[in-house]
Amino acid sequence: MDVDTSPSSPSSVDASRYDLKRTSSTVMKGETDMLDRAGAVERLEDIDLDGVDKKHLEKVVWRKLDMLLLPMATMFFFLSFLDRGNIANAKVAGMQTSLNMSNYDYSIALTVTYIPYILTEIPSNLILRYVGPHLMLPGMVAIWGIIATLQGTVTSYGGLLACRFFLGLVEGGLPPGLTIYLATFYPREKLQLRIATYFAASSLSGAFTGLLAAAITNMDGVGNKPGWAWIFILEGLFSSAFGFLCFFILPKSPETTSILSPTERAYVVYRLKQAGSASSDENEDNFSWREVRIALKSPQVIFGTLMSVLMGITLYGLAYFEPIIVQGLGYAGNRAQLMSAPPFAVAFVLSLASAFAADRFGRRGAVAIFFACWSIVGYSIYLDETNSKHAQYGALFLAVPGTYAAAPAVMTWMANNSAPHTRRATSIALGFVASNSGGIIATWLFGTLSPAPNYTAATIVCLSSSAGVLVLAAANWVYLAKQNLDKAARREEMVTTGGSEAKGMGDKSAFFVYNL
């Protein structure tokens, strides 16, 4: 079986330099029932793969796993964004008036979701080790679905705040948990497109939430409940039902999933081992505060974290306020709900297309830079009040896709350029915390700090954030390119002198090529 030679894979430099000792439990080292899983791995390793057609297995295995895992992972992320973001549609449908809320109150309702959301991301991952992602992930979906449903029963602002707090408390662990879960099934060079696929669900939810809200608000008065309440109730009930269903479908691990034959499971174990790390450190998979500190001080992680904050401002600003922005352009009622959908639909398509291109050519930074420019143009058009309302609406087709296509590129860029596992896990978690911190800022931009209908100050902030992403992405690209040149020189020197490097270098190793 040929080893992948894409720029994101360290094997493109010198596969023989790497200690391929990682097992398929690399990321989920603390997964529940580890003894059973270790036994399964040992039994699968006894299966002889020398006489099988590995090229055929390469196609069949990942197709089977994609068909099983990606629909559920995508739906989980879709429902997460849907149940957090549908409050914007409820606001358009009259929730703010019914609960006697000001714009300030609305921003508070959004903020109380993010505080527990951020605080629970890392602790949730620790619990994930003991409960198991195949149980905890669908459990979170089922529970937050119930909480989302309860939002439709509240009759006071205080009740809404309580629901929003617990919604964030339960949802917080999903993004990092989902990323870690998929990393136990896919080798590193195949993981990025899968992450981008489920992340694209965030833009898909922006499109569907407007369409669903337009239909659901026609139930206004049914059961003596307003239309906005039915948005929460019906969408929350669906989330709960889907979460309960996935309890019986989501596999525990690649070694035990019934969708694969024993030979196919053995091949997954083989490929996960083959996609080892750039480090020869035997203890690279053990948690260490030293590795955490190295990650926190790594320039590429710092650049990625800063980009994540800025993208969180624009991404969540659009997620929570795009329907309200559309309403400010002169569209009312169901018309506003429907007109909010197309920009997100375009964002969904471009997110997948750009992810495929980034995987194909191994150029995350180029994608981030390109779509940051796209967003800048969109916000600039919207900011020009001399433009017609139609032109300003058209600007959303640049601002929304630009933001939603750049975000997964930056997220996977951080994951690509951190190793071993502890550094990578730290960078992933830090990226999510940073983006959600940007989300807190976003909750105050539109309406509270920047009045309707033009939202001038908020648009300037989003424009500046996109420009910041552009500058940081370019700076990160220059830094990584220089590091790759330095590493090439170090490799040449070691070849000439016959020298070697210390264990535990991880992404600092001369044989780890940074993804540009």
UniProtKB/TrEMBL annotation:
UniProt lineage: Eukaryota, Fungi, Dikarya, Basidiomycota, Agaricomycotina
Keyword Transmembrane applies: yes
GO cellular component annotations of the record: membrane
Keywords: Membrane, Transmembrane, Transmembrane helix, Transport
Name this protein carries in UniProt: MFS general substrate transporter
Keyword Amino-acid biosynthesis carried by entry: no
Compartments where located: Membrane
Single GO MF annotation: transmembrane transporter activity
Matching Gene3D superfamilies: MFS general substrate transporter like domains (1.20.1250.20)
Membrane topology label: Multi-pass membrane protein
PANTHER family according to UniProt: PERMEASE-RELATED, TRANSPORTER, PUTATIVE (AFU_ORTHOLOGUE AFUA_6G00710)-RELATED
Transmembrane segments: 65-82, 102-119, 195-216, 228-250, 301-321, 341-358, 365-383, 395-415, 427-446, 458-481
Ranges where the Major facilitator superfamily (MFS) profile domain occurs: 69-485
